[in-house]
Amino acid sequence: MNRQISKGAMVALMVGGTAMTLPLYAETTTTADPKGLMAAQTCAGCHGTKGYIEDSAYVPLAGMPRERFITAMESFADGSRPSTLMGPLARAFTDEEIAAMADYFAAQPKGRAQAIGQAKGQTVEQGED
Amino acid sequence: MNRRDFLKILGASAAGTSTLTAPLARAERAPRVVIIGGGVGGATTAKYLKLYAPQTHVTIIEPKREYQRPYGSSEVITGQIELEDIVISYDDLQTRHGVEFVHEAVESIDYDARQVQTNGGTRLDYDRLVVSPGVSFDFDAIEGLTAELAETKLPHAWDAGDQLLVLKEQLESLPENPTVVIGPPPNPYRCPPGPYERAGLIAQWLLDRGDTEARVVILDPKNGFTTDYTMLHAWNDLYDFNLPEPARSKYSDEEWAQLTVHEKTGPIEWVMGELGGRILSVDAEAMTVEAEAGTFKADMINIIPPLKAGQIAIDQGLADDSGWCPVDQRTFESTRHANVHVIGDSCIAGAMPKSGYAANSQAKVLAIQLKALLAGNEPVEPVFQNTCYALAGNTDVGMFVADVFRMDGDTIARVEEQRYLPFDATETEYRLAALYQHNWMKAFTEDCFS
Description:
Chain A is mainly α. Chain A contains eight helices and no strands.
Protein backbone atom coordinates (compact mmCIF):
# COMPACT_ATOMS: atom_id res chain seq x y z
CA MET A 1 0.00 0.00 0.00
CA ASN A 2 1.17 3.51 -0.66
CA ARG A 3 1.47 5.62 2.43
CA GLN A 4 2.50 9.17 1.84
CA ILE A 5 3.83 10.97 4.81
CA SER A 6 5.49 14.29 5.28
CA LYS A 7 9.22 13.61 5.49
CA GLY A 8 9.78 16.59 7.74
CA ALA A 9 7.28 15.30 10.25
CA MET A 10 8.93 11.90 10.28
CA VAL A 11 12.42 13.30 10.80
CA ALA A 12 11.20 15.40 13.68
CA LEU A 13 9.90 12.32 15.43
CA MET A 14 12.75 9.95 14.81
CA VAL A 15 16.16 9.68 16.32
CA GLY A 16 19.05 7.44 15.43
CA GLY A 17 20.41 5.04 17.97
CA THR A 18 24.13 4.38 17.91
CA ALA A 19 24.83 1.59 20.32
CA MET A 20 27.62 1.81 22.83
CA THR A 21 29.96 -1.06 23.45
CA LEU A 22 29.02 -2.40 26.83
CA PRO A 23 29.63 -5.54 28.84
CA LEU A 24 27.35 -8.38 27.79
CA TYR A 25 24.99 -9.97 30.24
CA ALA A 26 23.99 -13.56 29.86
CA GLU A 27 20.72 -12.87 31.55
CA THR A 28 19.49 -9.36 31.96
CA THR A 29 17.15 -10.03 34.84
CA THR A 30 19.92 -11.07 37.19
CA THR A 31 21.76 -7.82 36.65
CA ALA A 32 19.05 -5.28 35.91
CA ASP A 33 17.35 -3.18 38.53
CA PRO A 34 13.91 -4.85 38.83
CA LYS A 35 12.23 -1.42 38.53
CA GLY A 36 14.06 -0.79 35.26
CA LEU A 37 13.13 -4.17 33.85
CA MET A 38 9.48 -3.84 34.93
CA ALA A 39 9.13 -0.42 33.31
CA ALA A 40 11.30 -1.16 30.26
CA GLN A 41 9.43 -4.29 29.25
CA THR A 42 6.26 -2.21 28.74
CA CYS A 43 8.04 -0.52 25.78
CA ALA A 44 8.62 -3.81 23.94
CA GLY A 45 5.09 -4.11 22.50
CA CYS A 46 6.10 -1.37 20.02
CA HIS A 47 9.89 -1.01 20.27
CA GLY A 48 10.70 -4.74 20.21
CA THR A 49 11.74 -7.27 22.82
CA LYS A 50 14.47 -5.68 25.00
CA GLY A 51 14.32 -2.74 22.59
CA TYR A 52 15.56 -4.63 19.51
CA ILE A 53 13.75 -3.66 16.33
CA GLU A 54 14.70 -3.37 12.66
CA ASP A 55 13.13 -1.74 9.61
CA SER A 56 10.48 -0.02 11.65
CA ALA A 57 9.08 3.44 12.24
CA TYR A 58 9.81 2.76 15.93
CA VAL A 59 13.18 3.79 17.29
CA PRO A 60 15.37 0.92 18.51
CA LEU A 61 16.06 1.30 22.23
CA ALA A 62 18.58 -1.53 22.76
CA GLY A 63 22.02 -0.05 23.29
CA MET A 64 20.80 3.56 23.30
CA PRO A 65 23.17 5.70 25.38
CA ARG A 66 21.72 6.38 28.82
CA GLU A 67 21.67 10.17 28.51
CA ARG A 68 20.00 10.08 25.12
CA PHE A 69 17.16 7.95 26.48
CA ILE A 70 16.66 10.23 29.48
CA THR A 71 16.77 13.39 27.35
CA ALA A 72 14.28 11.91 24.89
CA MET A 73 11.82 10.96 27.64
CA GLU A 74 12.19 14.34 29.36
CA SER A 75 11.62 16.28 26.14
CA PHE A 76 8.61 14.08 25.23
CA ALA A 77 7.20 14.71 28.71
CA ASP A 78 7.54 18.51 28.58
CA GLY A 79 6.35 18.65 24.97
CA SER A 80 9.54 20.18 23.58
CA ARG A 81 9.90 17.12 21.37
CA PRO A 82 6.73 16.47 19.35
CA SER A 83 5.14 13.05 19.53
CA THR A 84 1.87 11.27 18.96
CA LEU A 85 1.63 9.29 22.20
CA MET A 86 5.09 9.39 23.79
CA GLY A 87 4.34 12.65 25.65
CA PRO A 88 1.62 11.23 27.91
CA LEU A 89 3.47 7.91 28.28
CA ALA A 90 6.70 9.65 29.31
CA ARG A 91 4.78 11.73 31.86
CA ALA A 92 3.31 8.59 33.40
CA PHE A 93 6.72 7.24 34.48
CA THR A 94 8.72 8.59 37.43
CA ASP A 95 12.21 10.07 37.02
CA GLU A 96 13.54 7.10 38.94
CA GLU A 97 11.86 4.66 36.54
CA ILE A 98 13.12 6.56 33.50
CA ALA A 99 16.68 6.45 34.84
CA ALA A 100 16.35 2.71 35.53
CA MET A 101 14.91 2.13 32.03
CA ALA A 102 17.80 4.10 30.56
CA ASP A 103 20.28 1.87 32.40
CA TYR A 104 18.43 -1.22 31.22
CA PHE A 105 18.43 -0.27 27.53
CA ALA A 106 22.02 1.04 27.61
CA ALA A 107 23.10 -2.33 29.01
CA GLN A 108 21.59 -4.34 26.14
CA PRO A 109 24.27 -5.87 23.90
CA LYS A 110 24.46 -4.86 20.27
CA GLY A 111 23.38 -8.15 18.76
CA ARG A 112 19.77 -9.21 18.95
CA ALA A 113 20.72 -12.89 18.79
CA GLN A 114 22.88 -12.51 21.92
CA ALA A 115 19.98 -10.98 23.79
CA ILE A 116 17.01 -12.91 22.48
CA GLY A 117 18.50 -16.12 21.12
CA GLN A 118 19.16 -17.73 17.79
CA ALA A 119 16.20 -18.78 15.73
CA LYS A 120 17.76 -21.95 14.34
CA GLY A 121 20.26 -24.54 15.50
CA GLN A 122 20.33 -23.19 19.00
CA THR A 123 20.98 -25.52 21.89
CA VAL A 124 18.33 -24.80 24.41
CA GLU A 125 19.09 -25.52 28.01
CA GLN A 126 16.44 -27.96 29.12
CA GLY A 127 15.43 -29.20 32.48
CA GLU A 128 15.40 -32.94 33.05
CA ASP A 129 13.09 -34.65 30.64
CA MET B 1 1.61 -43.53 26.56
CA ASN B 2 3.17 -46.95 26.97
CA ARG B 3 2.33 -49.50 29.63
CA ARG B 4 5.35 -48.69 31.79
CA ASP B 5 4.41 -45.02 31.96
CA PHE B 6 0.86 -45.95 32.79
CA LEU B 7 2.00 -48.11 35.69
CA LYS B 8 4.19 -45.25 36.90
CA ILE B 9 1.17 -42.98 37.04
CA LEU B 10 -0.82 -45.65 38.83
CA GLY B 11 1.95 -45.97 41.39
CA ALA B 12 2.37 -42.24 41.90
CA SER B 13 1.82 -40.91 45.36
CA ALA B 14 -1.40 -39.14 46.29
CA ALA B 15 0.62 -36.01 47.03
CA GLY B 16 0.34 -35.19 43.37
CA THR B 17 3.98 -35.50 42.37
CA SER B 18 3.10 -38.03 39.71
CA THR B 19 5.43 -37.55 36.81
CA LEU B 20 6.75 -39.38 33.81
CA THR B 21 10.29 -38.58 34.93
CA ALA B 22 12.52 -39.49 37.84
CA PRO B 23 10.69 -38.41 40.98
CA LEU B 24 12.92 -35.62 42.25
CA ALA B 25 11.78 -33.29 44.99
CA ARG B 26 10.16 -30.16 43.53
CA ALA B 27 12.99 -27.88 44.54
CA GLU B 28 15.68 -30.03 42.94
CA ARG B 29 14.36 -30.14 39.41
CA ALA B 30 13.58 -27.52 36.82
CA PRO B 31 10.26 -25.83 37.59
CA ARG B 32 7.42 -26.67 35.25
CA VAL B 33 5.02 -24.12 33.87
CA VAL B 34 2.13 -25.27 31.73
CA ILE B 35 0.27 -22.68 29.67
CA ILE B 36 -3.23 -23.22 28.31
CA GLY B 37 -3.72 -21.14 25.15
CA GLY B 38 -1.27 -20.10 22.44
CA GLY B 39 -2.59 -16.61 21.81
CA VAL B 40 -0.96 -13.32 22.75
CA GLY B 41 -1.06 -13.92 26.52
CA GLY B 42 0.14 -17.51 26.42
CA ALA B 43 2.84 -16.98 23.80
CA THR B 44 4.25 -13.87 25.49
CA THR B 45 4.31 -15.56 28.89
CA ALA B 46 6.17 -18.54 27.41
CA LYS B 47 8.72 -16.45 25.55
CA TYR B 48 9.48 -14.07 28.41
CA LEU B 49 9.65 -16.86 30.98
CA LYS B 50 12.30 -18.57 28.83
CA LEU B 51 14.16 -15.23 28.55
CA TYR B 52 13.98 -14.44 32.27
CA ALA B 53 14.24 -17.94 33.75
CA PRO B 54 15.73 -20.15 31.00
CA GLN B 55 15.87 -23.27 33.16
CA THR B 56 12.06 -23.36 33.41
CA HIS B 57 10.22 -26.07 31.51
CA VAL B 58 7.52 -24.29 29.52
CA THR B 59 4.77 -26.14 27.65
CA ILE B 60 1.91 -24.53 25.76
CA ILE B 61 -1.26 -26.58 25.23
CA GLU B 62 -2.95 -25.27 22.09
CA PRO B 63 -5.06 -27.31 19.64
CA LYS B 64 -4.25 -25.08 16.67
CA ARG B 65 -0.91 -25.54 14.89
CA GLU B 66 -0.68 -21.89 13.95
CA TYR B 67 -2.19 -18.72 15.33
CA GLN B 68 -4.41 -16.19 13.63
CA ARG B 69 -4.16 -12.77 15.20
CA PRO B 70 -7.50 -11.08 15.85
CA TYR B 71 -5.86 -7.66 16.29
CA GLY B 72 -5.98 -5.78 13.00
CA SER B 73 -8.00 -8.58 11.39
CA SER B 74 -10.89 -6.38 10.20
CA GLU B 75 -8.55 -5.36 7.38
CA VAL B 76 -9.04 -8.88 5.98
CA ILE B 77 -12.75 -8.09 5.47
CA THR B 78 -12.07 -4.91 3.52
CA GLY B 79 -9.14 -6.38 1.59
CA GLN B 80 -6.19 -4.32 2.81
CA ILE B 81 -4.63 -7.65 3.81
CA GLU B 82 -5.28 -11.33 3.10
CA LEU B 83 -6.16 -14.00 5.65
CA GLU B 84 -2.65 -15.46 5.30
CA ASP B 85 -1.26 -12.13 6.53
CA ILE B 86 -2.73 -12.69 9.99
CA VAL B 87 -1.36 -16.24 10.32
CA ILE B 88 1.51 -16.53 12.79
CA SER B 89 3.84 -19.51 13.12
CA TYR B 90 4.85 -21.06 16.43
CA ASP B 91 8.28 -22.01 15.02
CA ASP B 92 10.26 -19.23 16.69
CA LEU B 93 8.83 -20.00 20.12
CA GLN B 94 10.01 -23.58 19.67
CA THR B 95 13.38 -23.18 17.95
CA ARG B 96 14.57 -19.86 19.34
CA HIS B 97 13.10 -20.05 22.81
CA GLY B 98 12.72 -23.74 23.56
CA VAL B 99 9.01 -23.67 24.31
CA GLU B 100 7.31 -27.04 23.98
CA PHE B 101 3.90 -27.43 22.38
CA VAL B 102 1.17 -29.99 22.82
CA HIS B 103 -1.33 -29.50 20.00
CA GLU B 104 -4.30 -30.99 21.81
CA ALA B 105 -7.31 -29.67 23.70
CA VAL B 106 -7.55 -29.60 27.48
CA GLU B 107 -9.83 -32.29 28.86
CA SER B 108 -9.58 -31.49 32.56
CA ILE B 109 -7.46 -29.87 35.25
CA ASP B 110 -6.78 -31.63 38.55
CA TYR B 111 -6.03 -28.66 40.80
CA ASP B 112 -5.03 -30.83 43.78
CA ALA B 113 -2.65 -33.03 41.81
CA ARG B 114 -1.49 -30.03 39.73
CA GLN B 115 -2.00 -31.90 36.53
CA VAL B 116 -3.63 -31.10 33.19
CA GLN B 117 -5.06 -33.86 31.05
CA THR B 118 -5.66 -33.42 27.34
CA ASN B 119 -8.17 -35.07 25.04
CA GLY B 120 -5.21 -36.89 23.47
CA GLY B 121 -4.42 -38.59 26.75
CA THR B 122 -1.37 -36.46 27.56
CA ARG B 123 -0.88 -35.63 31.23
CA LEU B 124 1.21 -32.64 32.16
CA ASP B 125 2.33 -31.85 35.69
CA TYR B 126 2.82 -28.25 36.64
CA ASP B 127 4.23 -26.18 39.45
CA ARG B 128 2.35 -23.20 38.10
CA LEU B 129 -0.43 -23.21 35.52
CA VAL B 130 -1.17 -20.24 33.25
CA VAL B 131 -4.62 -20.01 31.64
CA SER B 132 -4.92 -17.58 28.75
CA PRO B 133 -7.86 -18.74 26.62
CA GLY B 134 -9.16 -15.46 25.19
CA VAL B 135 -12.93 -15.04 24.94
CA SER B 136 -16.13 -16.95 24.23
CA PHE B 137 -19.47 -15.59 23.05
CA ASP B 138 -22.86 -15.39 24.73
CA PHE B 139 -25.19 -16.08 21.80
CA ASP B 140 -28.16 -16.55 24.14
CA ALA B 141 -28.08 -12.85 25.02
CA ILE B 142 -29.57 -11.87 21.65
CA GLU B 143 -32.76 -13.60 20.51
CA GLY B 144 -32.36 -15.17 17.08
CA LEU B 145 -28.58 -15.40 17.25
CA THR B 146 -26.85 -18.78 17.46
CA ALA B 147 -23.33 -20.17 17.18
CA GLU B 148 -24.40 -21.85 13.91
CA LEU B 149 -25.65 -18.59 12.39
CA ALA B 150 -22.35 -16.95 13.34
CA GLU B 151 -20.59 -19.43 11.05
CA THR B 152 -22.91 -18.73 8.15
CA LYS B 153 -25.29 -15.80 7.85
CA LEU B 154 -24.49 -13.65 10.86
CA PRO B 155 -20.74 -13.84 11.48
CA HIS B 156 -19.30 -11.80 14.34
CA ALA B 157 -15.74 -12.28 13.00
CA TRP B 158 -14.39 -11.27 16.40
CA ASP B 159 -11.96 -14.14 16.85
CA ALA B 160 -10.18 -14.20 13.48
CA GLY B 161 -10.69 -17.44 11.50
CA ASP B 162 -13.01 -18.24 8.62
CA GLN B 163 -15.77 -15.91 9.78
CA LEU B 164 -13.61 -13.08 8.45
CA LEU B 165 -13.85 -14.64 4.99
CA VAL B 166 -17.62 -15.11 5.31
CA LEU B 167 -17.99 -11.43 6.16
CA LYS B 168 -15.64 -10.44 3.34
CA GLU B 169 -17.70 -12.50 0.89
CA GLN B 170 -20.92 -10.91 2.18
CA LEU B 171 -19.44 -7.42 1.79
CA GLU B 172 -18.31 -8.08 -1.77
CA SER B 173 -21.76 -9.47 -2.67
CA LEU B 174 -23.73 -6.51 -1.33
CA PRO B 175 -26.18 -4.77 -3.67
CA GLU B 176 -25.60 -1.14 -4.59
CA ASN B 177 -26.03 1.36 -1.74
CA PRO B 178 -26.73 -1.27 0.90
CA THR B 179 -27.55 -0.97 4.59
CA VAL B 180 -24.98 -2.61 6.87
CA VAL B 181 -25.75 -3.05 10.56
CA ILE B 182 -22.91 -3.38 13.04
CA GLY B 183 -23.74 -4.29 16.63
CA PRO B 184 -20.87 -3.70 19.06
CA PRO B 185 -21.05 -5.67 22.31
CA PRO B 186 -21.68 -4.25 25.79
CA ASN B 187 -18.69 -3.74 28.11
CA PRO B 188 -16.39 -5.41 28.85
CA TYR B 189 -15.25 -6.84 25.54
CA ARG B 190 -12.16 -7.58 23.48
CA CYS B 191 -10.63 -4.74 21.45
CA PRO B 192 -12.65 -1.69 22.58
CA PRO B 193 -12.11 0.51 19.46
CA GLY B 194 -12.46 -2.45 17.09
CA PRO B 195 -16.18 -2.43 16.15
CA TYR B 196 -15.99 1.29 15.28
CA GLU B 197 -12.82 0.89 13.25
CA ARG B 198 -14.62 -1.89 11.37
CA ALA B 199 -17.60 0.41 10.72
CA GLY B 200 -15.21 3.00 9.33
CA LEU B 201 -13.36 0.49 7.16
CA ILE B 202 -16.64 -0.79 5.68
CA ALA B 203 -17.94 2.77 5.10
CA GLN B 204 -14.73 3.65 3.28
CA TRP B 205 -14.90 0.42 1.24
CA LEU B 206 -18.46 1.24 0.11
CA LEU B 207 -17.53 4.83 -0.76
CA ASP B 208 -14.54 3.58 -2.75
CA ARG B 209 -16.95 1.34 -4.66
CA GLY B 210 -18.98 4.43 -5.53
CA ASP B 211 -21.92 3.76 -3.19
CA THR B 212 -22.76 7.33 -2.24
CA GLU B 213 -26.09 6.36 -0.58
CA ALA B 214 -24.86 3.39 1.49
CA ARG B 215 -25.65 3.22 5.21
CA VAL B 216 -23.48 1.77 7.95
CA VAL B 217 -25.64 1.78 11.06
CA ILE B 218 -23.98 1.14 14.42
CA LEU B 219 -26.55 -0.17 16.91
CA ASP B 220 -24.79 0.29 20.22
CA PRO B 221 -25.79 -0.68 23.75
CA LYS B 222 -23.25 1.89 25.02
CA ASN B 223 -23.01 5.69 25.04
CA GLY B 224 -19.31 5.82 24.45
CA PHE B 225 -16.27 3.80 23.49
CA THR B 226 -12.49 3.94 23.72
CA THR B 227 -11.15 6.48 21.17
CA ASP B 228 -14.65 7.95 20.60
CA TYR B 229 -13.31 11.46 21.17
CA THR B 230 -10.96 11.15 18.17
CA MET B 231 -12.97 8.64 16.09
CA LEU B 232 -16.20 10.69 16.01
CA HIS B 233 -14.21 13.82 15.20
CA ALA B 234 -12.37 12.05 12.36
CA TRP B 235 -15.68 10.70 10.96
CA ASN B 236 -17.11 14.21 11.12
CA ASP B 237 -14.28 15.33 8.82
CA LEU B 238 -13.95 12.27 6.60
CA TYR B 239 -17.49 10.93 6.21
CA ASP B 240 -19.84 13.89 6.73
CA PHE B 241 -20.86 12.24 9.99
CA ASN B 242 -23.09 14.21 12.32
CA LEU B 243 -22.46 13.55 16.01
CA PRO B 244 -25.62 12.66 17.97
CA GLU B 245 -26.59 15.34 20.49
CA PRO B 246 -25.86 13.22 23.61
CA ALA B 247 -22.21 12.95 22.45
CA ARG B 248 -21.84 16.66 23.25
CA SER B 249 -20.72 15.73 26.78
CA LYS B 250 -17.48 14.29 25.39
CA TYR B 251 -16.30 17.70 24.17
CA SER B 252 -15.82 21.19 25.54
CA ASP B 253 -18.31 23.78 24.27
CA GLU B 254 -15.53 25.31 22.20
CA GLU B 255 -14.66 21.95 20.61
CA TRP B 256 -18.30 21.06 19.98
CA ALA B 257 -18.75 24.38 18.16
CA GLN B 258 -15.86 23.49 15.83
CA LEU B 259 -17.49 20.26 14.65
CA THR B 260 -19.31 20.50 11.32
CA VAL B 261 -23.07 19.99 11.08
CA HIS B 262 -23.52 18.43 7.64
CA GLU B 263 -26.59 19.16 5.52
CA LYS B 264 -26.30 15.80 3.82
CA THR B 265 -24.84 13.09 6.00
CA GLY B 266 -22.48 10.33 4.92
CA PRO B 267 -22.79 6.57 5.44
CA ILE B 268 -22.08 6.20 9.17
CA GLU B 269 -24.87 6.47 11.75
CA TRP B 270 -24.19 5.86 15.43
CA VAL B 271 -27.30 4.97 17.42
CA MET B 272 -26.08 5.40 20.99
CA GLY B 273 -27.47 3.34 23.86
CA GLU B 274 -29.54 6.20 25.20
CA LEU B 275 -31.00 6.72 21.71
CA GLY B 276 -32.21 3.11 21.57
CA GLY B 277 -29.17 1.40 20.08
CA ARG B 278 -29.37 -1.74 22.21
CA ILE B 279 -30.18 -4.78 20.05
CA LEU B 280 -32.98 -7.02 21.34
CA SER B 281 -33.27 -9.62 18.59
CA VAL B 282 -32.26 -10.51 15.07
CA ASP B 283 -34.14 -12.34 12.32
CA ALA B 284 -31.68 -14.01 9.96
CA GLU B 285 -34.43 -14.97 7.48
CA ALA B 286 -35.96 -11.51 7.17
CA MET B 287 -32.56 -9.83 7.68
CA THR B 288 -33.96 -7.45 10.28
CA VAL B 289 -32.57 -6.30 13.58
CA GLU B 290 -34.86 -5.25 16.40
CA ALA B 291 -33.33 -2.57 18.61
CA GLU B 292 -34.90 -0.42 21.31
CA ALA B 293 -35.11 2.35 18.70
CA GLY B 294 -37.08 0.16 16.27
CA THR B 295 -36.60 -2.31 13.42
CA PHE B 296 -33.68 -2.03 11.00
CA LYS B 297 -33.73 -3.87 7.68
CA ALA B 298 -30.22 -4.70 6.52
CA ASP B 299 -28.32 -6.29 3.65
CA MET B 300 -25.52 -7.35 5.98
CA ILE B 301 -25.61 -7.85 9.74
CA ASN B 302 -22.49 -8.02 11.89
CA ILE B 303 -23.51 -8.41 15.52
CA ILE B 304 -20.74 -9.06 18.04
CA PRO B 305 -22.53 -10.81 20.90
CA PRO B 306 -21.70 -10.12 24.55
CA LEU B 307 -18.42 -11.76 25.52
CA LYS B 308 -17.25 -13.84 28.42
CA ALA B 309 -14.08 -15.65 29.43
CA GLY B 310 -12.72 -18.43 27.22
CA GLN B 311 -14.86 -21.57 27.51
CA ILE B 312 -12.10 -23.64 29.12
CA ALA B 313 -11.80 -21.11 31.98
CA ILE B 314 -15.55 -21.27 32.57
CA ASP B 315 -15.68 -25.08 32.31
CA GLN B 316 -12.79 -25.46 34.75
CA GLY B 317 -14.37 -23.23 37.40
CA LEU B 318 -12.06 -20.22 37.06
CA ALA B 319 -14.79 -17.66 36.23
CA ASP B 320 -17.28 -16.06 38.61
CA ASP B 321 -20.91 -15.05 37.99
CA SER B 322 -19.77 -12.15 35.80
CA GLY B 323 -18.44 -14.63 33.25
CA TRP B 324 -14.84 -13.46 33.83
CA CYS B 325 -12.03 -14.74 36.03
CA PRO B 326 -11.21 -13.04 39.33
CA VAL B 327 -7.48 -12.88 40.11
CA ASP B 328 -5.01 -11.29 42.50
CA GLN B 329 -4.21 -8.38 40.21
CA ARG B 330 -0.55 -8.23 41.30
CA THR B 331 0.29 -11.80 40.29
CA PHE B 332 -2.80 -12.88 38.27
CA GLU B 333 -3.15 -15.89 40.53
CA SER B 334 -6.73 -17.09 40.46
CA THR B 335 -8.70 -16.32 43.62
CA ARG B 336 -10.49 -19.64 43.08
CA HIS B 337 -7.60 -22.06 42.59
CA ALA B 338 -4.06 -21.82 43.95
CA ASN B 339 -1.01 -22.00 41.65
CA VAL B 340 -3.17 -21.10 38.64
CA HIS B 341 -2.77 -17.72 36.91
CA VAL B 342 -5.32 -16.29 34.48
CA ILE B 343 -4.26 -13.51 32.08
CA GLY B 344 -5.47 -11.72 28.99
CA ASP B 345 -9.06 -11.20 27.92
CA SER B 346 -10.41 -13.80 30.37
CA CYS B 347 -9.24 -12.17 33.59
CA ILE B 348 -10.61 -9.26 35.60
CA ALA B 349 -7.73 -6.78 35.60
CA GLY B 350 -9.10 -3.57 37.11
CA ALA B 351 -8.91 -0.66 34.68
CA MET B 352 -7.00 -2.57 32.01
CA PRO B 353 -8.89 -3.15 28.76
CA LYS B 354 -9.26 -6.49 27.03
CA SER B 355 -6.71 -5.91 24.30
CA GLY B 356 -3.72 -7.65 22.79
CA TYR B 357 -1.33 -5.10 24.24
CA ALA B 358 -2.86 -5.54 27.69
CA ALA B 359 -2.53 -9.34 27.47
CA ASN B 360 1.10 -8.91 26.35
CA SER B 361 1.81 -6.48 29.20
CA GLN B 362 0.16 -8.78 31.76
CA ALA B 363 2.13 -11.74 30.39
CA LYS B 364 5.48 -10.00 30.91
CA VAL B 365 4.54 -9.02 34.45
CA LEU B 366 3.46 -12.61 35.02
CA ALA B 367 6.84 -13.89 33.74
CA ILE B 368 8.61 -11.73 36.34
CA GLN B 369 6.19 -12.83 39.08
CA LEU B 370 6.45 -16.52 38.16
CA LYS B 371 10.24 -16.33 38.25
CA ALA B 372 10.03 -14.85 41.75
CA LEU B 373 7.35 -17.23 43.01
CA LEU B 374 9.06 -20.36 41.64
CA ALA B 375 12.23 -19.32 43.45
CA GLY B 376 10.30 -18.79 46.67
CA ASN B 377 10.62 -14.99 46.53
CA GLU B 378 8.06 -12.22 46.95
CA PRO B 379 6.30 -10.85 43.85
CA VAL B 380 7.43 -7.51 42.41
CA GLU B 381 5.38 -4.28 42.20
CA PRO B 382 3.93 -4.34 38.68
CA VAL B 383 3.72 -1.64 36.01
CA PHE B 384 1.56 -2.17 32.94
CA GLN B 385 0.96 -0.39 29.68
CA ASN B 386 -1.64 -0.52 26.95
CA THR B 387 -1.53 1.03 23.52
CA CYS B 388 -4.35 0.38 21.06
CA TYR B 389 -4.17 1.82 17.58
CA ALA B 390 -7.25 2.16 15.40
CA LEU B 391 -7.99 3.40 11.90
CA ALA B 392 -10.81 5.84 11.13
CA GLY B 393 -11.72 3.86 8.01
CA ASN B 394 -9.44 5.67 5.62
CA THR B 395 -6.26 3.70 6.32
CA ASP B 396 -4.11 6.85 6.27
CA VAL B 397 -5.98 8.23 9.27
CA GLY B 398 -5.05 6.60 12.55
CA MET B 399 -5.62 7.16 16.24
CA PHE B 400 -4.82 5.47 19.51
CA VAL B 401 -5.40 5.14 23.20
CA ALA B 402 -2.26 4.89 25.33
CA ASP B 403 -2.17 4.31 29.08
CA VAL B 404 0.17 3.31 31.88
CA PHE B 405 -1.33 1.32 34.76
CA ARG B 406 -0.22 0.81 38.37
CA MET B 407 -1.61 -0.82 41.46
CA ASP B 408 -4.00 1.23 43.59
CA GLY B 409 -4.37 -0.96 46.65
CA ASP B 410 -5.39 -4.34 45.25
CA THR B 411 -6.69 -3.02 41.93
CA ILE B 412 -4.96 -2.11 38.68
CA ALA B 413 -5.64 1.59 38.07
CA ARG B 414 -4.97 3.88 35.13
CA VAL B 415 -2.42 6.68 35.52
CA GLU B 416 -4.39 9.84 34.68
CA GLU B 417 -2.80 11.33 31.57
CA GLN B 418 -3.99 12.41 28.15
CA ARG B 419 -4.91 9.17 26.33
CA TYR B 420 -5.85 10.29 22.83
CA LEU B 421 -4.68 12.64 20.12
CA PRO B 422 -5.76 16.16 21.10
CA PHE B 423 -8.77 17.82 19.45
CA ASP B 424 -6.51 20.13 17.46
CA ALA B 425 -4.26 17.31 16.21
CA THR B 426 -2.94 17.99 12.72
CA GLU B 427 -3.50 15.85 9.67
CA THR B 428 0.16 14.83 9.98
CA GLU B 429 -0.43 13.49 13.48
CA TYR B 430 -3.39 11.41 12.28
CA ARG B 431 -1.24 10.16 9.39
CA LEU B 432 1.61 9.31 11.72
CA ALA B 433 -0.72 7.38 14.00
CA ALA B 434 -1.81 5.34 10.95
CA LEU B 435 1.82 4.77 9.96
CA TYR B 436 2.64 3.60 13.48
CA GLN B 437 -0.47 1.39 13.49
CA HIS B 438 0.86 -0.53 10.49
CA ASN B 439 4.36 -0.77 11.95
CA TRP B 440 2.86 -1.85 15.26
CA MET B 441 1.26 -4.99 13.77
CA LYS B 442 4.70 -6.38 12.91
CA ALA B 443 6.58 -5.10 15.97
CA PHE B 444 3.95 -6.33 18.41
CA THR B 445 3.61 -9.73 16.77
CA GLU B 446 7.38 -10.22 17.00
CA ASP B 447 7.38 -9.27 20.67
CA CYS B 448 4.77 -11.94 21.38
CA PHE B 449 5.73 -14.78 19.06
CA SER B 450 9.41 -14.34 18.08
